[in-house]
Amino acid sequence: MAKARRKQRLSKREYQARVQALRENLLQMQVGMKNVPFKVLLLLAGPEGAGRGNLLHALTAWLDPRGLETFTFLPPTDEEREHPHQWRFWRSLPSAGRIGLYAGSWYTEALREAARDKRARDQLHHEAERIREFEKLLADSGTLILKVWLQLSREAQGRRLQALSNDPETAWRVTDEDWHHHRIYDRLAKTARRIRKLTDCPGARWTVIDAEDERRRDLLVGELLLARFKQQQKKAARLNRRMGPPRVVRPLRPSGLRRLRALPLDQDLSEEGYESQREKWLGRLNRAVREALEAGRSIVFVFEGWDAAGKGGAIRRLTSALDPREYGVISVAKPNDEEKHAHYLWRFWRQIPRDGRVAIFDRSWYGRVLVERLEGFCREDEWMRAFGELNRFEQQLTDHGIIVLKYWLHVSHDEQLRRFREREATAHKRHKLNAEDWRNRRKRRAYEIAVGDMLALTDTENAPWNLVPADSKRFARIEVLRSASRKIEAALED
Amino acid sequence: MAKARRKQRLSKREYQARVQALRENLLQMQVGMKNVPFKVLLLLAGPEGAGRGNLLHALTAWLDPRGLETFTFLPPTDEEREHPHQWRFWRSLPSAGRIGLYAGSWYTEALREAARDKRARDQLHHEAERIREFEKLLADSGTLILKVWLQLSREAQGRRLQALSNDPETAWRVTDEDWHHHRIYDRLAKTARRIRKLTDCPGARWTVIDAEDERRRDLLVGELLLARFKQQQKKAARLNRRMGPPRVVRPLRPSGLRRLRALPLDQDLSEEGYESQREKWLGRLNRAVREALEAGRSIVFVFEGWDAAGKGGAIRRLTSALDPREYGVISVAKPNDEEKHAHYLWRFWRQIPRDGRVAIFDRSWYGRVLVERLEGFCREDEWMRAFGELNRFEQQLTDHGIIVLKYWLHVSHDEQLRRFREREATAHKRHKLNAEDWRNRRKRRAYEIAVGDMLALTDTENAPWNLVPADSKRFARIEVLRSASRKIEAALED
Question: ipTM of this model?
Answer without folding.
Answer: 0.79
